[in-house]
Amino acid sequence: MVRAGVRRLLDIRRTRISLALVGLWLLAACVAIRQANEVLDRPQDRRLPELDAWLGPEGVLHLPGSLYDTDSRGTTFSETPFAGWVLRPLTKAAENALGVAWTIVTLLIVAAIGVLVAYALPALRTRRAQLLAAPLIISLLVLSLPVRGNLSLGQMSLLPVLLALPAMLRPAPGKPASIAVGVAAALHPAMLLFAVYLWMTGKQRAAANATATFLACTALAWLTMPRDSFTYWVHHVAGAGLGGDADALSNQSLHGLMLRIGLSGPLEIMLVVLLSAAVLWFGMPRAVAYAKDGQALLGVALAGCMMVAVAPVSWQHQQLWILLAAAGRLGARQTDRMVWPVAVFMIMTFDSKTLIWGKLSAVRVVADNGPLLLAVASACAVPFITKASAKWTPQAMPQGAAAQGRFSWIPALPFGWRPLSRPNLLLELLMIRVGYQVYSFIRASVPDQRRVAEEHGQQIIDLEKFLHVDVERSLNHFVARIGWLENGMNFFYETFHFIVPLTILAILYIRKPAAYRSARTVLSVATVTGLVGFWLYPLAPPRLMPGYDYIDTVHGVQDLNNPNFGALTKISNQYAAMPSLHVGWSLWCGLMILAIAPKGWRWLGLTYPLATTLVVMGTANHWIMDAVGGAAVVGLGFAVQYLLTGRSAFSVEPPAVPVPTTGPVPVQVGAGNGSAVVDNTAMSTRAGDSVVITRSTESKQDDSDPRDDPDKQPVSHK
Predict the structure, then answer these.
(1) What is the mean pLDDT of residues 114-140?
(2) DSSP state string for 387-452
(3) How far apart are CA 540 and CA 453, in angstroms?
(4) Euclidean distance between CA atoms 342 and 344, whole angstroms
(5) Pairwise CA distance, residues 279 & 478, whole Å
(6) Which of 109, 335, 367, 649 could join 518 via S-S bond, C-beta 3.0 to 4.6 A?
(7) In the predicted model, is pLDDT for residue 291 greater than 50?
(8) Taking the alpha carbons of 423, 427, 429, 435 in that order, is the dihedral positive or negative?
C-alpha cells in the first residue's frame, strides 16, 4: 500500500514536470517570436540596418571597390575579409526573404547556444533538469542586450560563439570542433585568445587545429581579396578603426573606456596595453583553473570576458560571453545562490538609464561601463566557488512539510514544500527592480486604443447606472470643491501606492519570513493578472471620458481634443484602468495588516483599502467597477497561492503536519537531486507541532535518478 502511494506521488510529479516543460518551451517560443516580430515589423529602411548596408541593393558587398571603402550612406564593412568572402554569395538573395531567414537563423543559433549552456551547467545533473532549464536559458538569452543587438542590426556575432563553444566544453574535442574554433577566429580575430585557452587547458591538438584553420581561412581571404585583406589587417590594424566611433558606449572594451574618459594618443595606447596585460595575467590562470575544476562553462565564460575587455572594440552584439559568467557560483547558503546570476542578467539586459535612476556623475559612469566592469571583475576578481570547496553544496534550507488539500491535485507544487528561511535581501531587491521594469514595460507596450477604451468606459457607465452605483461624478466634484480634501487625496494617490506595500513586505521579511514568501506570491499573481486586464480590456478612466465633466485633480485640466493630451504624454498607458491595482494592492495590504498587526492596529486593515477606493474615485482615476476588478485579482492571487502550496497565505507560522501514530510512513521531501524519504515514526503527533526538515537541492551522488524507481528510494532518519 505504501509503495502504491509512492508510485502515485511519482506519477503526479512526472505529470507536473511534463506540463512545466511544455509551458517553459512555449514561453521561450513566445519570447523569440516577439523579438523577431519587433525586428521584422519595422519599415524596410530601418530593418536590419547593418545587414542591409552589407547585402542590400546598395550594400558595400555590391560595390566594385574595396569592402572598406565608405559608401554613399557613410557605411563601412566592419567584419574580416574572410567574413566578406563568406557573405558575398548572399548578395544574390531576395532582400525580404534574406531578412526573414537571417532573423530566424539568428534565433536558431541562440537556441543552440542555450541548449549547450544548459547541458554544461554542473548544477543540472539529470537530463530532466537540463530539459527544464534549456527553454528558460534561451528566453533569458533572447532578452539580453547582445542578442537583441544582433537581431536588430542584422549582425553575425552569435555564430562565432556557437562555433567556439563545443570545443571549449568538451573534455577532448574532436577535429571538427577545433576547426570550428579556427573559423570563429577568422570571423572575429579576438577569438584567437581561445586558442591560447585551449592550449593552457591541456587541449594542445585542438589549439593547433584552431590556429591552423584560422591561418588557412585568412590566407584564403588574402589570395582572393588581397586589397581588402591589406586594408583590414595592416591599414586598420586588424579592424581596430572600423565599425563606428570607438568611444561610443556600445564599445565595452578597455580601449573604449580610455577614450570615453578623455585619454588619447600614445598615453592611451600604453595604458590599454598595460591594463590588457594585467587582465590576461590575472584572468587566464583563473579561467584555466575553473576549467580544470570541472566548470568548463565558467572557464570559457571568463576567457570570453577577457576577450571583451582586451579587444580594441567590443560592440554590444559581441558581449554575450559576459552573460555566460552567470554560471559561476557564489554564496554559502542556498538562498544566496541566485544573487549573482540575477545581477549579471540585469546588467546585460537593461541599459544604464533603466538600471540606475540616480543622476550622480560617478554613478552614471559606473552604469555606462557596467558590462566592461562586470567582465573584468568576473575574469580577475570574483571568488567563484570550486568543486573542492565545502561551500560547493549550499547550506540546507529549512522547509515546511506539505499538508494534503481537499483535492489530490492540491498542492500543485511538487509535494508542497515551502521554504521557511528568510530569503536573501539583495536578491529580493534585485527581483523587485526587475519586476517593476517588466511591469512598466508591459503596461507601456499596450497599443494606443483610445476609441476602444472610451467605448469600454461607456459600457462601465451604463453598467453602474443599471446597478445604481454610479457615484464617481458626485464624489469627484465634492472633492474638487474642498481644497484641503483635494490636496489630501492627491497626496494619498501619488504617495501611498508604493510606500505602503513595500513597508508591509519589509515588516513581513523581518518578522515573518515564511509568511513573506506567500504574501509576495499573492501580490505577484495579482499584478500579473492586472497586466493581462490592461491588455485585454483597455478602459478610459473617468478623467479621460469625453462628454463627462470629470475633474482630473491630480494632473490638472486636460484638453481631450489634443491627441497628445498635454501633460499626460509623460505618463505611461493612460487606459490601464481595469482592474485598479491601487485598490488591489491596498486590499492586499489591508488583509496582511489584519493577519500580522497587533489588535490595536488592525483597524488600519479595514480603513486603508476603503480610503484608497474613495481616493481613486474622488480624483477621477478609476470607476467603482475598477475597484471590484482590483479586489478580484487579489482574490485570484490568494487562490493561486493556496493551489500551489495547499496553505493559506495568512498562515504566518511554520505549518503543522499530522503524523500517523503507528508504522513508519515514508514521505518524499524534495524534488531535487538530494531528495530523501523521511521516516515519520519519531515525529511528534501533538496538535500544533511543526515539522521542519532541512534539505539541500544538490547531492554529490551519481547522476542516476532513484526517484524514478520506488524500490530504490533512499531512507534517512531525521
Answers:
(1) 89
(2) TTSTTSSPBPEEEEPP---SSTT-S-SGGG-EE-SPPPHHHHHHHHHHHHHHHHHHHHHS---HHH
(3) 5
(4) 5
(5) 68
(6) 649
(7) yes
(8) negative
627 and 613 Cβ atoms separated by less than 8 Å: yes
| Residue 715 DSSP one-character state | E
Amino acid at 686: R
Note whether 649 and 518 are within 8 A (CB).
yes
Displacement of CA 416 from its chain's centroid (Å): 26
Return the amino acid letter for 398. P
| DSSP secondary structure letters along 446-499 | S---HHHHHHHHHHHHHHHHHHT---HHHHHHHHHH-HHHHHHHHHHHHHHHHH
What percentage of the chain carries pLDDT values higher than 70? 79
- C-alpha to C-alpha distance for 28 and 25, rounded to whole angstroms: 5
In order, the DSSP letters of 601-640 are GTHHHHHHHHHHHHHHHHTTS--HHHHHHHHHHHHHHHHH
Q: Which of 665, 673, 660 is nearest to 699 (CA)?
A: 673
Q: What would you report as the CA-atom Rg of the chain, rounded to the nearest whole angstrom?
A: 30
Q: Work out whether strand 692-695 and strand 666-668 pair parallel, antiparallel, or are unpaired.
A: unpaired
Task: Tell me which DSSP letter residue 333 carries.
Answer: B
What is the rounded CA–CA span in Å between residue 243 and residue 457? 51
Rounded Cα distance between 362 and 81, Å, is 40
- Alpha carbon of 656 to those of 96, 105, 401, 464, 518: distances in Å? 63, 53, 8, 46, 16
Q: What are the cell numbers at 251?
A: 564599445
Beta strand pairing status for 666-668 and 715-716? unpaired
List for the chain the helix, strand, coil content (%; round to 5): 65, 5, 35
Number of Cβ atoms within 10 Å of the Cβ of 98 = 19
d(CA 24, CA 5): 29
How does strand 677-679 pair with strand 666-668? antiparallel
pLDDT digits (tens, 9 = 90+) for 546-568: 878 888 887 665 555 554 554 44
- Cα 578 to Cα 103: distance, rounded to the nearest angstrom: 36
Number of continuous H segments (helices) and E segments (strands) in the chain: 27, 6
pLDDT tens string 482-495: 889 888 888 998 88
The angle subtended at Cα 433 by Cα 432 and Cα 436, nearest 5°, is 80
Q: What is the pLDDT of residues 347-403, one digit of tens each?
A: 998 887 777 765 566 677 888 888 999 999 999 999 999 998 888 888 766 666 555
Q: Nearest CA to 338 among 350, 347, 349, 326?
A: 326
pTM score, whole prediction: 0.79
Beta pairing class for 418-419 and 397-400: antiparallel
Helix (H, G, I), strand (E, B) or coil at 81: helix
Report the 10 Å Cβ neighbour count for 226. Answer: 11
**HSE-up (13 A, CA, CB side) for residue 593:** 20
* Distance between start and end Cα atoms, the chain: 23
Q: How far is CA 543 from CA 34, 457, 535, in A?
A: 33, 11, 20
* Residue type for position 624: I
Instruction: Count the residues in the chain.
Output: 718
The CB-side HSE value for 97 (13 A sphere, CA atoms) comes to 5
